[in-house]
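hey can u check if this looks right to u? its 441 residues, i copy pasted from the old doc so theres a chance i mangled smth
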Amino acid sequence: MKGRLRIRQWMIIGMLIVLLLPRLLFEVSDLLDRSIFASHLHARQQSGLTSAIHAVSETDARRWEEPQWQDSLQNIAKLSGFGIILLDAAGREIMHAGPTGAWDNATRQLSIIEQGEMRGQALFFVPERSSGLATVSAILATLIAIFFIGMKMGRVVIKPLEAMGAAARRIASGDLDFYLPESTVLEVADVRSAFQAMGSSLRESLTRQSELEEERRFFIQAIAHDLRSPLFTLRGFLLRLERGMYDNRDKAARYLSICSQKAEQLERLISDLFAYTKLESLEQTLRPEPLEASPFFAGIAEEFRPIANEKSIELSYIEEEPLEQVAFTGDSHLLRRALGNLIDNAVRHTPVGGRIELGWRKESERLVFTVEDTGPGIAEQDRMVVFEPFYRGDHSRNPAYGGAGLGLTIARRIVRAHNGELFVQNKSPSGGASFTGWIPL
């Protein structure tokens, strides 16, 4: 706001410049012309005027009609640049010399009276001096003032407005990268600030829209990825029931219970897919509820143990003997999904006869959980990117083992949505991946 004037103030300043600058230069130039350039002319006029008055006053009025005397007086008037009119006693013109005007406008008037009678009159006309230098200076000052005001208005008004028009056309074409020159006119500066704020808001909106679109694509891919695991489990247990692969009704009932759980999980996944269109981030999908650590992790181990047993892999559940129940708050469904992805990843990369361990413990104000396997582990150069979307390591983690490369990414994002973190390392130099995560209690 500092140093900026309203457009009305600029107009007043411009009008004052146009009106006062030419007048000022005219007076200054006229003064210079009078004091320097025209001083000798003025002196000559005054000297000639004095001589003419002396000649007229000292000469008998009867001699005014003599041609020789008139020639002498006309020469004085011509050389000095003034006019003379001589009148007789009756007011008739006797002689006319030099530039004159109406009798009433005479500069000097001399009456000749002899013996109490009017003998004649002499009228002297000294022309008003016009300074060409002052006139030219005033014209130049006017042109300079107009040029200056036009240039100034072009810089502080027209140029910013043209830039805004060009920026509007660029915005219409989808280009939000524009520059607007500054202006000392308050109204134009306000419009410029509003225009830049609009551009910044549009850029932020497009960036946010791009992020939301990326988030939406990620979530859809995650849902599609997660549909595979429950469908596989559901199909497996239904196939066992269809073929009568159970020893007693209790085992059949357990299979049916697992199938029911997987059907509910599928329903939840599909519901999340539809609900995500109204959500902006994964954190907003959380449905926190109070949970107890021991039964929660034990239930996950029991849920995935049949899947591990199918591949002749032992899934062990390890927990510290708690002196008291450890409670925490979290989204049961999302946390099950995260741990399920870690176990599913371990099952896919653990050889037949291997071992997977799921454990948890309490550390200060954090709940720490681990998923370890006896597979080949993760190469050191891959540990930094193992949680990147669509990552699938080569050799021991090649595409033949299945997976779209989203399971670990989903797991970490779920843990981070709970204000926690998920890490990976190898149990030993010989291999064995160990995923360790924590969430606050």
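Confidence is low (pLDDT under 50) at residues 275-280, 394-404.
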